[in-house]
Specification:
The complex is a heterotrimer of chains A (158), B (127) and C (151). By secondary structure, chain A is of the alpha+beta class. Chain A has helices at 7-20, 63-74, 84-108, and strands at 26-33, 37-39, 43-50, 55-61, 115-116, 120-130, 136-143, 146-154. Chain A has 3 helices and 8 strands. In chain A, strands 1, 2, 3, 4, 5, 6, 7 and 8 form an 8-stranded antiparallel β-sheet that branches. Chain A starts with 6 loop residues before the first helix and ends with a strand. Helix content of chain B is 39%, strand content 20%. Chain B has 5 helices and 5 strands; from the N terminus they run E-H-E-H-E-H-E-H-E-H. By secondary structure, chain C is an alpha+beta fold. In chain C, strand 3 (42-50) and strand 4 (54-60) form a beta hairpin. Chain C is globular. The N and C termini of chain C lie close together (11 Å). Classes of the chains: A alpha+beta (158), B alpha/beta (127), C alpha+beta (151). Chains in contact: A-B, A-C, B-C. At the A-C interface, strand 3, helix 3, strand 5 and strand 6 of A face strand 3, strand 4, helix 3 and strand 6 of C. Strand 6 (120-130) of chain A pairs antiparallel with strand 6 (115-127) of chain C.
Chain lengths: 158, 127, 151
Amino acid sequence: MELNAQLAPFVKATIKNLKDMLGFEVNTGGMEPETDEFTSQGYTVLIGFTGGWKGRLILDMPRETAMKMASAMTGEPYSSAGDEEVLLSGAELGNIIGGNAITEINNSQPGLQIRLTPPSVFTGMGMTMFNARVNSSSLLIKTDVGPVKVNVAVEGAQ
Amino acid sequence: MRGIKADGTAITVMAVDDSPVSRKMIKKALEPEGFQVIAEAGNGKQAVDMYASVKADVITMDVTMPVMDGLDAASAIKAINPGQPIIMLSAMGDEDIINDARRRGINDICSKPFKPDEIIEKILRIV
Amino acid sequence: MDIKFINAFISGLLNVTGMLGLSDLKRSGLSKKERLEIDKDVNILLGMTGGMNGNIVLSMPEQTARNIASTMMGGMEIAVLDMMPKSALCELANMVAGNSVAGLDADSVSMSPPTLISGQNIVALVSLVETLVIDFTAAAGSVTMSIALEG
């Protein structure tokens, strides 16, 4: 399945950042449609957007992956995904990936003027993220430190 | 050790970013090369307040921060000392933000994520 | 954070819950925290940009979420927090945020669609900025509204 117009820029930014910033090897799978409920692998970064697209970006991964990703960013070891620096690393990763993606979207489609809301990071057991009447699409990216799912929901998107 | 000046002293840096993780990443990129991060501020206002007593060779300035953003902080610092080198670090590279940064006299722009070599070269070009 | 701002959010929540039949809801606490953290099982989060930039979160235990959704849905019994009650709670958050911001005549605030995050043993960090935390209590249970504005 081809990536849809909403998911593609976020996938591109995620791959670029995992490679450039963290030096990871990445492999991508195909696009997976989701329902209005997204099931987390244990750790999720959520950023809303407003403007021409209303919706949200989720970067989701197992807790172990989140800890390793944070270690790659700060150079320090972590033993819990709930550690403040692990949560802050996810927020920073989300800011960078979200910022890169909407910069590309806004520069290529100036009328949209998409803005990001500040990121939030959740970790827990059996977590789901629900958006009323908005279906989302995901793409799984396999990295050296585990699977990262990029999920985008935009109101009114196909 | 590109962070050491000809006289043997370190090039000093003030890192301004609301994310402690991001400040850690800046240190991780610069300190192995001998740069010294001598001050850290969590928002633009803290940076401007700190600027009264701390003089660094270069300031790395995030854009989106609470209380006072990096663009306003850069303007305030340039008003005190027009010669202060400032590098903007931002994940938001919209053309209007970049143009705004240039108008305010920000010396260079480095997009996040930065590669250590990229930020080091940009710092060496302006200090 | 001035009193006008705090009052707008308190009356925003009370106006909306009153209209939806939760008229016994009362404010039971008001505090400021250094950051927005969450430790409840059901959270509805909504982001804002423009004249106000930040996040609003309504947090509650799952039982309270089912009780509130049940009241909103005309007393229908809610055994499982599935799609229908979740939609109702997202709508509640939308209305509360909209009503609160309207009371502030802030310039051009845009809101992202609400996301309901549920699970067990949730630990979350939403923001590192000063956060206004308002607690409400009713027979249905307790609800916490957290508001973190970045600027």
